[in-house]
What does this fold into?
Amino acid sequence: MASKPTQTAEEEPQQLLRTVEMFEAITQSQPDDYQSLEILKETYTKLGRQDDSLRISKKLAAAYASVGQISQAVLEYEGILQKYPGDAGAVAALAQLEPKTSTSDAHSQTVAPSLAEDSKPTPLAGAPAGAPARSALAGQGGDGDRALADVLIAEKLVTPQAVEPLLERLKALRNGSADKSQPLSLAQLIANEQIAKLDDVLSAIIDKSRLPYLPLSSYDVDRDIVYQLPQDVCWQTCVVPVDLISRSILIATANPFDHAAKKQVESILDYNVFWYISPPAEILAALRRAHGLDNNRSQQTKP
It folds into this structure.
């Protein structure tokens, strides 16, 4: 189990305010992103900003209803009414939703599983405690790369002939390279080789995974949070922990189709895991900053 990050009483409110700023921007551009709304509501609650927490609770309930998770929407509105019995908007919304619960619950569980269930850590069968061995990570990376390649081929962004050499290159990099100047990411290699634009690749990934986008370039990633995962896990799978709010941890990934890597990450962390899509170069930059690699390089170049 990873150790919890240590934050002083002065640092935590500042981190929460940065989280608010980022996720307000995310939810404005992605109003149905119930995962981000859940994080935002919890952050406002921790800050003691009850009016904002209520405002986001209503948005969260509406987002659940919009994506077909009627039972989750009903539960959210009922939670609002427990705290604010006279809230007319919640009463009216609940009255509209309750007749729909019997006909839509089965469909919503199939199409969009509830956040509480989808984000629970799923330990690997027989997985050892702590971080997996680097050789195991390297061996499993290929399946995730292949899964992403299949998605991009189906979207007609790449051809099998163009992507096959890149898969072989990634396999070799994972097995032998200690270079931490380039992300181990098929998406980044595709962009580097000018086979497809990175924005188009990321758009396809977001569309097919239905995970929200998190721009790490404007997100202040705390070093203690990054340290929740071992270095090798982050480098090999191109992921980075970016925020920790109560019992929830946010993880940025460049490949949500690497299910083995996701299970490994979740087996290490004793938190509910929320996944986001971020550009691989931004994930790498966050890792390098957290582990002091950029500082080391600048010191080495000084005369």
About this structure: The chain has a mean pLDDT of 81. Residues 134-294 form a domain with the GMP Synthetase; Chain A, domain 3 fold (CATH 3.30.300.160). The longest strand covers residues 239-245. Residues 134-154 form the longest helix (21 residues).
